[in-house]
Amino acid sequence: MNHMMDIPLHAGPEMDRAINRTDFFRLYKSVCRASGFEYFVLVQHTDRGSRYDPLSSFLLTNIPDHERPALARALSDDKGEVHSRMHSSASPFTSGLSFESLTGDSEASSANCALALPLHSPEGKRYWLMLAGKRPPPGRRELAELMLDSMRIFAKFHEKILVGEASSQLTAREVEVVKWTSEGKTSAEIAIILGLSEHTVISHITSAARKLKAVNRVHMIAIAVRKGIVH
User: Fold this and answer.
1) CA separation for the pair 194, 189 (Å, rounded)
2) What is the pLDDT of residue 112?
3) What is the pLDDT of residues 139-174, one digit of tens each?
4) Closest of 4, 87, 86, 89 to residue 97, by C-alpha
5) Is 9 helix (H, G, I), strand (E, B) or coil?
6) C-alpha of 225 from chain center
7) Are the beta carbons of 175 and 190 closer than 8 angstroms?
8) Where are the alpha helices (DSSP H) in the chain?
9) What is the pLDDT of residue 168?
10) Is pLDDT above 70 for 103?
11) Closest CA to 125 of 97, 165, 95
12) Rounded Cα gap, residues 34 and 31, in angstroms
């Protein structure tokens, strides 16, 4: 069965309108869902000897929060084949790793498939899009379509999100949003105050938290106060 027959390549209006993490989350989720996979994770590649961290390494994912540390450990296991192939291969590969139970052998099986697709930024940084679910490994044509789709979405994600987040300096709008958050305002209230959509406010909060390396809003506010961003 070719799961990709009904998938349009995301070069149309939906991708053209993508401006924040939520938009790109939806794009990758649609690829995941339409191709018969259940989970996806966009991972920033680590150097040998470094371990994957669910907060800093996982850029986008629909994996439940409580499962992410276990997946990070599985990907960091230097005795595992997935870890080895992520460091030695520049080509897509499959494994039997299950994102639900984090078990399975290193060979793809008809019961479960984890697909790793390599991605690169213009400056040469490496990333992986990993898709997992209870389905057979993709055939050659489907793999080519998945690879093209993921590359197109990632190129836009890099342009719209990663380039801006490469700087630790908050934008003026992000400072405003953090300030109102520190005063106890909800995303909906901030949206009304600043004349923005709630969707956009949440995107600014997410971006500010990542730049400040905060794990949640409370942590973000504490860091912002310590750095003198808000008073």
Assistant:
1) 9
2) 87
3) 999 999 999 999 999 999 998 888 766 656 788 899
4) 86
5) coil
6) 28
7) no
8) 13-16, 21-34, 68-76, 81-88, 140-157, 163-165, 172-182, 187-194, 198-211, 217-227
9) 63
10) no
11) 165
12) 5
Provide the 10 A C-beta neighbour count for residue 20: 16
104 pLDDT band, cuts 50/70/90, is: low
Task: Round to whole Å and give the CA distance between 105 and 98.
Answer: 9
Dist CA 93 CA 120 (whole Å): 16
| Alpha carbons 47 and 74: distance in angstroms, whole number | 16
Residue type, 149: D
Instruction: Give the integer Cα–Cα distance in Å for 190 and 206.
Output: 14
The full DSSP string for 89-153 is -SS-EEE---TTT----SS--SS-EEEEEEEE-TT--EEEEEEEESSPPP-HHHHHHHHHHHHHH
The model's pLDDT over 183-194, given as tens digits with 9 standing for 90+, comes to 999 999 999 999
The residue-averaged pLDDT of 124-149 equals: 94
